[in-house]
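Figure 6 in text form: structure in, sequence out.
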């Protein structure tokens, strides 16, 4: 199939590609070049209304479509994503600024994997039964909810968009989905792929626009019965305040400020290589990146020296080049925010070990939004730099003397998404895993993902879990049926 990208993107509603009813558009900027590359529909509640009507019309048939047929369509979507990896990856990189090799290897690969995983998952999804000895038997029906809303962020655009849409569709729901207005192109192309794969009209509706105008219209619509949201804690709070009084089902995957805990006995080389990745991959714009690095005092100076040296060796540049380890920051707004956070770190007394400034690569990217990977030391757990999410290529170093102190520093935060622990001592590793206040713990690895596992955070990092059966349970309503013998 030919995946052409028009200058003016369109919404995908009821199986048709149509412009926003208001006729209004937002500019789409390539962050690596700072140039305007297209127009995005600035949709509002009127477009959402049409999409909800289409989804409601499609629901009776889709919710009763056989599991095998749903599997075949979703699996076909996965195949088409794989077949179009190159073009989707280029679109993702142009929108987001991430290196093209990363888009191909991670983002687009994983988008296909999400569809493949839930296509097969729904074929194996079973429900419970509870036997009351010789009195009765209960069984649980898990039925699709109806029309559901999926709202996703810009950092892993197609990867996170499909992570929500695939289980929602597999479970038999019809979906109103909104990608980030900062990175809309691969979501637009997904509409083309779904049409080609034979997904019936109205089952998936993709609407583009801003959070306050389009996103909130989805959340507020009384016929959208559940909201699956990934994004900032601030937007999550706003969404919860609208959806909770309407008694909607809510899944909120929010911000993070993840600790990386390094003990002196770790496998040093593996730790060092992985910590460079967990700190700066995707320009530090992964919710799972470790932004607070805690190091056992006895190896603090050794770590600082080597880590700073290896960070300085990272190549930041044109995302289209294979040689670029890091690309551009996603937008001017976010670029300014990160530079302001670095300014605050300096005001708080932080010592910048490397980076701390913007960069201007030569050639076509000279006006783009690039920031040098930055390491800061000398700040305690209570300062803004160590408490607030920066979501960029910026990490801090803090020493600790023992396990208790490491846990104290790690948990001294409003967020609770993920933690990485480096040690050869299984007892230490298990103690951290049991006492750490995060939803995900990686021991001697980072970002190793099995799609069957529960995914999500504690505290201000969110409510609910995605992944595996958790996602299929979220996108279904449980109904207990009791039969007396
Ligand atoms: P954001 O909250 O600004 O936007 C996310 C999405 O929500 C976008 O589509 C946006 O248009 C929409 N939105 C914004 N306000 C809304 C509102 N009031 N109502 C409805 N929709 C609204 O987040 P972002 O800047 O795009 O993404 C970065 C954030 O996402 C970071 O905080 C990061 O930690 C978080 N994140 C979390 C996870 C996770 O799994 N926990 C994964 C990726 C990113």
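Output sequence:
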């Amino acid at each position: 199939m030919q995946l052409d990208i028009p200058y003016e993107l369109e919404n995908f509603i009821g199986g048709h590609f149509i412009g926003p009813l208001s006729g209004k558009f937002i500019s789409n900027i390539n962050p690596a070049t700072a140039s305007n590359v297209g127009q995005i529909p600035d949709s509002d509640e009127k477009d959402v209304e049409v999409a909800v009507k289409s989804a409601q019309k499609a629901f009776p048939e889709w919710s009763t479509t056989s599991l095998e047929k749903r599997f075949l369509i979703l699996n076909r979507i996965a195949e088409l994503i794989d077949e179009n990896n190159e073009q989707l990856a280029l679109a993702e990189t142009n929108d987001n600024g991430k290196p093209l090799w990363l888009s191909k290897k991670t983002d687009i690969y994983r988008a296909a994997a999400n569809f493949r995983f839930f296509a097969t998952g729904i074929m194996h999804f079973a429900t419970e039964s509870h036997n009351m000895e010789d009195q009765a038997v209960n069984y649980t029906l898990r039925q699709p909810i109806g029309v559901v809303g999926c709202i996703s962020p810009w950092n892993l655009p197609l990867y996170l968009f499909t992570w929500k849409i695939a289980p929602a569709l597999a479970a038999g729901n019809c979906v109103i989905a909104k990608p980030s207005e900062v990175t809309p192109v691969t979501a637009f192309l997904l509409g083309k792929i779904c049409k080609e794969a034979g997904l019936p009209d109205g089952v998936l509706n993709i609407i583009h626009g801003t959070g306050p105008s389009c996103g909130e219209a989805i959340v507020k619509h009384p016929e959208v019965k559940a909201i699956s949201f990934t994004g900032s804690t601030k937007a999550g709070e706003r969404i919860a305040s609208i959806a909770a009084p309407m008694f909607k089902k809510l899944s909120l995957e929010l911000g993070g400020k993840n600790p990386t805990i390094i003990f002196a006995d770790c496998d040093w080389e593996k730790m060092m290589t992985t910590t460079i990745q967990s700190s700066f991959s995707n320009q530090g714009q992964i919710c799972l990146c470790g932004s607070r690095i805690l190091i056992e005092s006895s190896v603090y100076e050794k770590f600082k020296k080597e880590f700073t040296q290896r960070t300085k060796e990272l190549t930041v540049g044109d995302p289209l080049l294979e040689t670029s380890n890091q690309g551009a920051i996603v937008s001017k707004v976010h670029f300014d925010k990160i530079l302001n956070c670095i300014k605050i770190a300096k005001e708080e007394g932080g010592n910048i070990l490397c980076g701390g400034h913007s960069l201007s690569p030569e050639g076509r990217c000279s006006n783009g939004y690039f920031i040098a990977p930055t390491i800061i030391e000398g700040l305690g757990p209570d300062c803004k730099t160590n408490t607030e999410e920066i979501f960029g290529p910026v990490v801090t170093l803090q020493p600790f003397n023992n396990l208790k102190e490491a846990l104290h520093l790690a948990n001294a935060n409003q967020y609770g998404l993920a933690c990485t622990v480096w040690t050869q001592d299984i007892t230490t590793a298990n103690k951290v895993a049991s006492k750490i206040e995060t939803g995900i713990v990686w021991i001697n690895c980072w970002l190793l993902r099995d799609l069957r596992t529960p995914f999500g955070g504690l505290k201000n990092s969110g409510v609910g879990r995605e992944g595996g059966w958790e996602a299929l349970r979220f996108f279904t309503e449980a109904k207990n049926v009791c039969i007396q013998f």
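Caption detail: The mean pLDDT is 98.
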